[in-house]
Structures are given as C-alpha cells and as structure tokens.
Design brief:
about 210 residues; mainly alpha; Four Helix Bundle (Hemerythrin (Met), subunit A); 2 domains; about 0% strand; binds fe (ii) ion
Length: about 210
C-alpha cells in the first residue's frame, strides 16, 4: 500500500460526479502519461554521465511528484478494493493485485529518491554520481513499463468486464473528491470552478442527456 493516504477532500465536497463516468479511461490516460515519463527518464539516462537535460528533468519531476502518487492511490484505495469484491477469492487476480501493491511500495520509495536526485541536479547544475543516477533511472523506468503493461493487459480488461455501473460511479466519485479531481469528459477549468463552490458540474455528454 502507498505510505501516504489521500483522503477524499471532504464529505461536503460539491457533487461533481459525471452521469457518464469513465474512470477506466482516466486510468488508461494516466498510464499513457506514465509511459511518456518513462521515455523522458530514458532520454535523461541516455545523456548521462556527460550530459544532463535539465528541461526533461523538470517535466519528469512534476509528473513523478504529482501524477504518480495520486494514480497509485486511485488504484489501491478505490479500484483494487472494488475488483477484489467482484472476483472470486480463488481468482488469480486476487494475488496479482497484492503483487501490484508491493510494486507500488517499491516504486513509490524509488520515486521519492529519483525526484530528489533530479531536483538536486536541477538546482545544483552538477551531479555527484551520474552513473548511479543513470542506474537508478533505468531500474525505475524498466520496472514501471512492466507494471503499466501488466495493468493494461490484465487488470483494466477485467475491470471493464466485472465492474458494475455503480462501481464505476463510486470510482469516479472517489476521483472527484480526491486532491486531484479529474474527468475525461470535463475540463480541468470546470472541475476547479466546481471545487471552488460553484456546485454541480455536468460534462457535455450529461448536459445533452439532460436536455433531451
Ligand atoms: Fe499500479
Ligand atoms: Fe496503474
């Protein structure tokens, strides 16, 4: 399990749950972003020990420190518990989810180390041990690529097959009440407006349904 727990914002958070929730698509979009992060980290590692690409490092740190922890929490605190309830206790997915949580623990710890190392290289302009940084980066992005490929090939297809509409709504509700509300059918601006107290936000799909 991840060390820090993201508490859904509050019980009186505005109602922002989309009427056509697609949280699985959110997870797939986040995986695509994480694969791009792996490419960035590989490009940085390829440049070492002689060249450090500061601009790639800045983008990488931003994804490492915000996108990845919230993604792991979404899986561990919302998706995996729903899946565990929807498949039999003897289903191989049960133990697979435990393995994925163990990987989150390892990758979460590595993520903090790598973000710190990159940030210090960005701030200081020099790297104490560039070979070690390259080694850490390679270990991390290779493990991440395997992890993401496995979730895409096995976990998400099962989720699409077994989760009920109520499950998907509760998954989307968890996302909306988290520190990083997101919906693939609503703009970030609309979500921020609603979070600031403007009340319910309907995505274009929901508005069209409401109008007819
Ligand atoms: Fe994961
Ligand atoms: Fe994932």
């Amino acid at each position: 399990m991840t060390a820090a727990s993201e508490t859904p914002a509050s019980t009186n958070a505005p109602s922002m749950t989309c009427n056509a929730p697609d949280p699985i698509r959110i997870l797939r979009e986040e995986h695509a972003l994480q694969n791009e992060l792996c490419d960035l980290l590989e490009a940085i590692a390829d440049g070492l020990p002689h060249h450090f690409d500061r601009s790639l490092a800045l983008v990488s740190v931003s994804i490492l420190e915000t996108g990845m922890p919230s993604h792991m929490r979404l899986e561990e605190e919302a998706l995996f518990p729903l899946l565990r309830r929807r498949v039999a206790e003897s289903h191989p997915l049960q133990s697979a989810l435990t393995c994925l949580e163990d990987e989150h623990d390892r990758d979460g710890a590595a993520l903090v180390e790598i973000a710190e190392a990159l940030r210090s290289a960005i701030d200081g302009g020099s790297i104490a041990n560039p070979e070690m940084l390259g080694y850490m980066l390679r270990g991390f992005f290779e493990s991440q690529r395997r992890h993401i490929a496995w979730e895409e090939a096995v976990v998400l297809p099962i989720a699409e097959a077994v989760l009920t509409p109520d499950d998907l709504s509760s998954l989307q509700k968890w996302v909306m009440q988290s520190e990083h509300p997101r919906c693939c059918q609503q703009s970030v601006i609309a979500l921020r407006t609603a979070r600031a107290g403007a009340g319910t936000v309907l995505c274009s799909t929901c508005v069209q349904r409401h109008d007819h």
